C-alpha cells in the first residue's frame, strides 16, 4: 500500500491550491480516503474524507465551504481543492486510507506542506 501526496506550496491568503493523493497497492474504490493536517507545534486535525463510491463526503467545520474533496477511481487519486485559504490553514497535509470508514486510518502518505502567507 502506498499513498503519495502532491500539490502543496506557498500561497497568499485568499488563494487556492489543489492537493492530490495517488494511491497504489490496494483496491482503491473499496476504501474511504481522508485528509488530515498538522499545523506547526499542534496535533493532528482531521480535515475531510470521501467514501469509495463518491456518494458521501465529510468536512471539518474549519474548512466547510472552502475545501472540496473528490476522487477519480479510474486514476486511483483523491483530490482536495482548497479555496479562500487562510494563514491558519498552514500545515503538513496527509492523505490516509480509512480501514473501516470510521476514521481508523491504517496507511498514511508522507505529507505535502501548505503554507499560507503574504
Question: In brief, what are we looking at here?
Answer:
By secondary structure, the chain is mainly beta. The chain is 0% helix and 53% strand.
What's the SSE blueprint?
Layout: E1 2-6, E2 9-11, E3 17-24, E4 32-38, E5 44-50, E6 57-59, E7 67-72, E8 77-82, E9 91-98, E10 105-108, E11 112-116
Parallel strand pairs: 2-11
Antiparallel strand pairs: 1-3, 3-8, 4-5, 4-9, 5-6, 7-8, 9-10, 9-11
Detailed description of the structure:
The protein is mainly beta and 118 residues long. It is 0% helix and 53% strand. The strands form 2 sheets. Strands 2, 4, 5, 6, 9, 10 and 11 form a 7-stranded mixed sheet that branches. A 4-stranded antiparallel sheet has the order 1-3-8-7, with no helix packed on it. It is globular, with a radius of gyration of 13 Å. The termini are far apart. The model has no long low-confidence stretch (mean pLDDT 97).
Give the averaged pLDDT, no decimals.
Answer: 97
Report the principal-axis shape: globular
Count of runs of 4 or more consecutive helical residues: 0
How would you classify the helix and strand content by structural class?
Answer: mainly beta
End-to-end distance: 37 Å
Low-confidence stretches at least 5 residues in length (pLDDT < 50)?
none
Radius of gyration: 13 Å
How does the major sheet shape up?
7 strands, mixed
Number of strands: 11
Helices and strands, in N-to-C order? Answer: EEEEEEEEEEE
**Percent in helix:** under 10%
Percent strand: over 45%
Question: Which features characterize this protein?
Answer:
single chain; 118 residues; mainly beta; 11 strands; 0% helix; globular
Amino acid at each position: 500500500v502506498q499513498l503519495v501526496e502532491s500539490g502543496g506550496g506557498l500561497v497568499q491568503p485568499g488563494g487556492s491550491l489543489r492537493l492530490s493523493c495517488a494511491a497504489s497497492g490496494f483496491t482503491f474504490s473499496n476504501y474511504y480516503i481522508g485528509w488530515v493536517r498538522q499545523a506547526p507545534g499542534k496535533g493532528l486535525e482531521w480535515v475531510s474524507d470521501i467514501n469509495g463510491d463518491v456518494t458521501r463526503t465529510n468536512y471539518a467545520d474549519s474548512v466547510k465551504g472552502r475545501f472540496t474533496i473528490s476522487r477519480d477511481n479510474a486514476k486511483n487519486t483523491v483530490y482536495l481543492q482548497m479555496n479562500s485559504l487562510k494563514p491558519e490553514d498552514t500545515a503538513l497535509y496527509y492523505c490516509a486510507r480509512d480501514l473501516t470508514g470510521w476514521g481508523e486510518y491504517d496507511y498514511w502518505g508522507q505529507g505535502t506542506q501548505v503554507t499560507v502567507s503574504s
